[in-house]
Amino acid sequence: MKRSWRGVILLCIVLFLNIICTQKAVNAYYFEHYRSVIMYALFNILLFPAAYLIYRRERDVR
Question: How far apart (Å, rounded) are the C-alpha atoms in residues 48 and 3?
Fold first, then answer.
């Protein structure tokens, strides 16, 4: 099963955004900015379905 470059790059971008959101949420929690923590955590949760849709679309294309 061969993957396209576009799918791999998109999944890498989503992973990079997940890492950034996690780091910002931890940093905001450390400085007690709880509203920011909730926003970053929600954005992190919303990125998961996006990654799943990209993966599923790339898996089904042959």
Answer: 20
